[in-house]
Amino acid sequence: xxxxxxxxxxxxxxxxxxxxxxxxxxxxxxxxxxxxxxxxxxxxxxxxxxxxxxxxxxxxxxxxxxxxxxxxxxxxxxxxxxxxxxxxxxxxxxxxxxxxxxxxxxxxxxxxxxxxxxxxxxxxxxxxxxxxxxxxxxxxxxxxxxxxxxxxxxxxxxxxxxxxxxxxxxxxxxxxxxxxxxxxxxxxxxxxxxxxxxxxxxxxxxxxxxxxxxxxxxxxxxxxxxxxxxxxxxxxxxxxxxxxxxxxxxxxxxxxxxxxxxxxxxxxxxxxxxxxxxxxxxxxxxxxxxxxxxxxxxxxxxxxxxxxxxxxxxxxxxxxxxxxxxxxxxxxxxxxxxxxxxxxxxxxxxxxxxxxxxxxxxxxxxxxxxxxxxxxxxxxxxxxxxxxxxxxxxxxxxxxxxxxxxxxxxxxxxxxxxxxxxxxxxxxxxxxxxxxxxxxxxxxxxxxxxxxxxxxxxxxxxxxxxxxxxxxxxxxxxxxxxxxxxxxxxxxxxxxxxxxxxxxxxxxxxxxxxxxxxxxxxxxxxxxxxxxxxxxxxxxxxxxxxxxxxxxxxxxxxxxxxxxxxxxxxxxxxxxxxxxxxxxxxxxxxxxxxxxxxxxxxxxxxxxxxxxxxxxxxxxxxxxxxxxxxxxxxxxxxxxxxxxxxxxxxxxxxxxxxxxxxxxxxxxxxxxxxxxxxxxxxxxxxxxxxxxxxxxxxxxxxxxxxxxxxxxxxxxxxxxxxxxxxxxxxxxxxxxxxxxxxxxxxxxxxxxxxxxxxxxxxxxxxxxxxxxxxxxxxxxxxxxxxxxxxxxxxxxxxxxxxxxxxxxxxxxxxxxxxxxxxxx
Length: 824
Ligand code: SF4
Description:
Elements: E1 2-5, E2 25-31, E3 42-47, E4 56-62, E5 65-71, H1 84-88, E6 103-106, E7 109-112, H2 115-132, E8 138-142, H3 148-162, E9 167-169, H4 176-186, E10 203-207, H5 211-214, H6 216-227, E11 233-237, H7 243-247, E12 250-252, H8 259-272, H9 278-284, E13 285-286, H10 288-295, H11 300-307, H12 311-323, E14 327-331, H13 333-336, H14 341-354, E15 364-367, H15 374-379, H16 395-405, H17 421-430, E16 435-439, H18 443-446, H19 450-457, E17 463-468, E18 480-483, E19 492-495, E20 500-504, H20 517-528, H21 544-555, H22 567-570, E21 576-577, H23 619-625, E22 631-632, E23 651-656, H24 672-677, E24 682-686, H25 687-693, E25 700-705, E26 708-717, E27 723-727, E28 769-777, E29 809-816
Parallel strand pairs: 8-9, 8-16, 10-11, 10-14, 11-12, 13-22, 14-15, 16-17, 17-18, 23-27, 24-26
Antiparallel strand pairs: 1-29, 2-5, 2-29, 3-4, 4-5, 6-7, 6-18, 19-20, 20-21, 23-28, 25-26, 25-28
Helix pairs in contact: 2-20, 3-20, 3-21, 4-14, 8-11, 8-12, 8-14, 11-12, 17-19
This protein binds iron/sulfur cluster.
Iron/sulfur cluster binds at residues 170, 173-174, 333, 370-371, 657, 663.
């Protein structure tokens, strides 16, 4: 058993293993009051909620309080490991500034009230709007952090009860492109790959995915392969010098917004050199000829010129990707939050399709998620799509949903594509959407172009309900605030980025009058008296387990089939991957084995969209193109971003996450170890640009775009020239007295980002905005408050290392190879 400062050493101790071996177990534990000194009364089963990796963990409870967490050794996802946010983030739950009572706006001020008053107010307003304007006046904007049971209930209320098409999640900012890229290539959502593919791969390619900070436990798995015999080669595509880039055999740092050109350059080499599986292509795909024609236009020299990377490096990367026997690719926000997001992410799928590398150990694509329960938002139809990956454009599938819900199918809106979040805010701006119910997210900091979002949310005519754990920049603008129970204060299931389902059980009571989101939705449905077509209650469940049982029926026979799962089964050792049904009683490790896809025209979730315009493909068009349900290869030409640098705004601005924080820090800023590791906003600039502008580490600088500006200290880092980086975690709720940043000078990165989105996935752009940088004054002796451990590491000397000290010491128990065979 060792002890380690896991702020200073976020990935802990290496446990090397060879290709094809089981990943060794290492159990990480953090107990706030001293390890082992005081024994918890009990350990409660759960999984991590501050990222999408789905690390299984048990919560230590003593005297009715959470006192720590421990990774679960037998779980297939993490084999006992936890990351810094798992280890320390839970402390936020006990923060004294939790919302504990409902609030309603009276005379311009939010005042405390009781649940009856708050809910009756919401119900009265809903009924009034339904009567006067119809269901399209009502919208729901949810999150990727509730539980499956909650999304499914919300989806039924919105689609089957009120009949509004306006239901989306902040997953729009996050995983909309993951879902859309999967739908484009395989006609259905669902990760083809599995984390266990890391154990077998020869090459692991990370496309715009800084896994070291977004899913640190998955990075530990990769690091352990790198430390063992026959290590895989890493290919990294990222404009920053991330930990992944430092470990990579080839690091391509393209100009932001040029990913399609880069992918076409790589595919040009792979196809041109015949590194393809012709038989697989013929038997299992449609569309290859068009791709072949298209990528001929992108020899490495042309791609290199567009992307500003050496042509020789494109060739090296292509050779590695094209000649390996087992390839794992992962994709995240570097691809997803760009103007050609879906087009670029689809090329990664194409890479695997043309090489026939799907459905076998070590051959998988992970179109990653960002949030812990984003997958469930999509499965349950809380992101606009219909539950169970049903196709809104297929009347038979809509009718089937009507059967499950016992409602007339005409009541379920399917007259057009579901409304995406960016459009919902546009409708609110224009005045057709009059009630917006926000759950578990903080759009006043996380959406692009914040001055616009603030003005939309603060309109008098918009009735804004916000349901959350803490006061936020968004609750400040609300008409009603509902205090929600957090993770560990309620029971439910959720599914990670490789389809592993975990059960999280209630460990402690919520504070004050806070209630689980499920209870709030059930209460609303009851007060609204929502009915099915026979006059029975529309929502027929009353607690998490009965909601889960209802969801199982909804998923029956669909790709995300949960019918083989139950709360009792999920109380076993490990999480289980869907589909889990009679045919796959132990779950399904990989999808698309043997080239069988869910793309039959009568079964598929989606007919796809035009990659340039985003227009949905017509059913007849899809049937003609893919009558036998194969995988679809779609090609795309490079198009430049709408907003390009110019003389006034010579930089490209990109935004992103740090290892120690989640979203707008409502939770992680309340965990002292995490907050101390990254306490304040910073700006990253390359050495070359810094010396040209006379900027030194720690200087106060101002970054501006045509929409706004922020002030922060400069970190001179390994980012590529011409690009600035801002972390998006910092808003205004915890701004210090005397801070350089304030609302006048801006602290939130999204003051600067633009209202624009990818045509196919509707995911907004956070990676390309034209910006300028101005030095305000010299440093005051202190460096930028950016962590030194990961992508924001300084290039110059003299910056003290980020450390957590004694408060961050955690236990590590390295136990070696798991004893049992099976699904690990
Ligand atoms: S912060 Fe990351 S995880 Fe959260 S919504 Fe944005 S992209 Fe997704």
